[in-house]
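Task card 7
Instruction: Convert sequence to structure tokens.
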Amino acid sequence: MAVATIAAPAVFATPEADVRRRLAGATQILMGLVTLFAFGLGTRTAHGASTTFGMTLISKQGTHVPDWVFPARPVIVALALVCVLLGAARLAVELPRRGRLLATSAVLFCFTFAFMAWSAADPKGAERLIVPSLLDSMVIAATPLVPAS
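Output:
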């Protein structure tokens, strides 16, 4: 018996997919550069500014979680570098769907965290961003929007 083999056609990415991949990578690199120059290398993070995230809800004094204090500039620059590297990887390599979602999620997290760190940066260490109060306010503000949708 003879066995016939059929060669499968090569699968090529459509030009639209290539444009979308390049646009997404360029956007991620742009977000990293904005993070670097607007937040990381700005005057607000200069002169050894530190960021303080308060972890205790102001209205609840029963439990106390220590504040999270870190130097602002090195952390923001590292987050910007992560954004740029993920964008460059997206430009260079065709990532699977899960990789694209993880890369986009990581870039959005890094950008948001860098913005929060920049907004709470203070050379004197007097300003704090109280994270539980921020989350509490977000839930209260979003509650009327849920039934409306």
